[in-house]
Specification:
By secondary structure, this protein is an alpha/beta fold. The chain is built from 11 helices and 12 strands. The strands form 2 sheets. Strands 3, 4, 5, 6, 7, 8, 9, 10, 11 and 12 form a 10-stranded mixed β-sheet that branches. A two-stranded antiparallel ribbon has the order 1-2. Strand 8, helix 8 and strand 9 form a beta-alpha-beta unit.
């Protein structure tokens, strides 16, 4: 992006939010970076644009006079980017997507298959990570969008996809396999297997909230490795209903006695900052 446009955006956002810090958070720059860009504008134009106060910033009379033109320039620059995309007609481009493993297997193949029928020349880069990594990749601009559970960073926009239930996973011959639901308290007497990241963090939060301390004897990144271990009677686990839909192992999945859910969304940095390819891709998402 043109360096001057970056300075204009920094100035306009600082006025809108009344703070260099808040502007930096929304624009994904450091506080000092936003302050420096505004200072550069003041030096370039030889006018004082902002009045720095202890509680934030306010536009000076000169800054208030210039602000409408700065905002107009920023808006027109965004429109220019969209127009260029439209001229290209989505004949080429790339969408960078971050996801966790069950999201990759559950949604992406069907979404991409449908999208490619209309836009066959779009390429994709898919990165696997845990929830924290995915959110940070979106904020940093390393990926265009990502599948993560709520809540997300307030600067991100989201499209709701699905409410996913956490399920207890047991061997077929487990004494509690015939019960309608699984009591979490029973985990105190069982060898337990947990995901190292992603949904594993949610499971650990459940344990902490309810004062449960299971005997963890197997930790892995791989949902399917856990299913295989459970099938052999080496312990039990808690996985998501989404991943259990494609379970190739002989195990039993039970709802928890007190149900626990996660709400999955596609998160991105806002339509005004999204390529035309991503905007069209979002239209192909399954809606619940």
């Amino acid at each position: 992006m043109d360096p001057n446009i970056l300075k204009y955006r920094a100035f306009a956002k600082a006025v809108e939010l009344g703070s260099f810090t808040k502007a930096a958070e929304e624009l994904h720059y450091s506080q000092s970076g936003v302050s420096r860009m505004v200072a550069d504008l003041e030096a370039d134009w030889q006018v004082s644009l902002l009045e720095r106060r202890k509680g934030g910033v306010l536009p000076t009379p000169d800054g208030a006079k210039i602000l409408p033109y700065v905002k107009s320039l920023c808006e027109e620059f965004e429109k220019l980017g969209v127009a260029v995309d439209e001229l290209q007609g989505l004949h080429s481009g790339m969408i960078r997507i971050a996801t966790f493993s069950s999201g990759a297997s559950q949604w992406l193949p069907n979404i991409i298959k449908d999208f490619q029928r209309a836009y066959p020349n779009i390429a994709y880069e898919v990165m696997l990570g845990d929830y924290t990594e995915i959110e940070q990749w979106i904020l940093d601009g390393r990926v265009d969008c990502g599948f993560i559970p709520l809540p997300v960073h307030p600067s991100l926009e989201t499209v709701f996809l699905e409410r996913d239930q956490m399920m207890a996973v047991l061997p077929l011959d487990h004494p509690l396999a015939s019960r309608e639901t699984f009591p979490l308290e029973a985990l105190d007497d069982e060898p337990f297997m947990i995901l190292e990241k992603g949904a594993g963090a949610e499971v650990e939060a459940i344990f902490k909230e309810r004062g449960i301390k299971p005997r963890v004897n197997f930790t892995t990144w791989d949902d399917y490795a856990i299913m295989a271990m459970v099938e052999k009677g080496l312990g039990i686990s808690i996985l998501t209903e989404m991943i259990m839909r494609r379970c190739p192992y002989k195990v039993v999945a039970k709802s928890l006695e007190q149900p626990v859910y996660r709400d999955i969304v596609l998160a991105f940095r806002g339509k005004e900052r999204s390529s035309l390819a991503l905007q069209r891709f979002i239209e192909y998402l399954p809606r619940r």
